[in-house]
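It is worth pausing here to work through a concrete case rather than discussing structure prediction in the abstract. The textbook approach is simple: state the sequence, then state the predicted structure, then interpret. We follow exactly that order.
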Amino acid sequence: MQTDQKLLTRNHNLDLLKMLCAFLVIVVHFGQESHHFIRSLGGFAVPIFMILSFYFFWQKITSIDIAKRIKKLFIPMVGWAIIYFIVYKVFLGINGITISSLIWQTITGHVDKLNASMWFQNNLIILTIFTFIIFKKFKNNFFKIMLCCCFLAYLLEYSDINYILYENLRSRFKYPLGRLTEMVPYMVIGLVLAKYNILNYFRGKYTSWWLALFIFMNSFIFINAPKGFGYGGIKYAIMSVLLILLFNSLPQNSKIYRNTLILCTQNTLGIYCIHRLVEKILHPYVFIEYNLSYCLIIFVVSWFVCYSISKIPSKNIQALVK
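Step two, the predicted structure:
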């Protein structure tokens, strides 16, 4: 199988998948009245985000400026922490929000009264730094080390050690730390998919097979999930990969289709970061019930806000949304 990084061309169907995952995250948070099956798909959103983040990271790892990369990842952590703090405390007058809340939100990304979803960015920054250091220091044994990390992560999960270590901590520590172990296998999967050019090899192929396998796995294969913090277990990894392979296999021959995807999917990060704020502001005015329609409204408004932010001629501000 070809492993030349030059052949790892962008498949915008994967960006479409990321956009759908952003919507599913909203459904998980605010779609309690939605159909159970649709809500269950939301469990694959974060694993897919992590897999694809490292899939694209590996393509640039030999040429990337790691300082600029970390800065780009860190800007949303700090920027959205400040935005949530100002809007919630100053404009909405929510009680219990202090400077301490802002500091912990900036560091851990998981303060319940601000934006608990940013734990993902915290984990992404830590694992990006870890991956880069291991690549630079142990390049010849990089994938052996990564596979060992994956095995160790599952060992910690299925032995309940990871759960025991962090379960009794305050939520601002518990979820970022507990989920860091759960994200390691997805990091490794993304790197492996890119290293061995697997998605390009299967690009546009076997759509019906991936769909059938996904349905079969979801319906008939039961693999015990370990005690954890929402994203652990081998089945999550398998199902997430099957969804990626499914979208990777979809055709994208039309130029109009590709351009539409580029337009609609370029601000996935921003939607993920801002949707809690948008819901808090919209809720008193447009709340229907916690169903798909409500989630769709949150999604569309979030997209338009992020699209507007992306047009501001400042790279640091644009980094908040893409």
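Step three, interpretation. The chain has 16 helices and no strands. The chain has one domain: 5-318.
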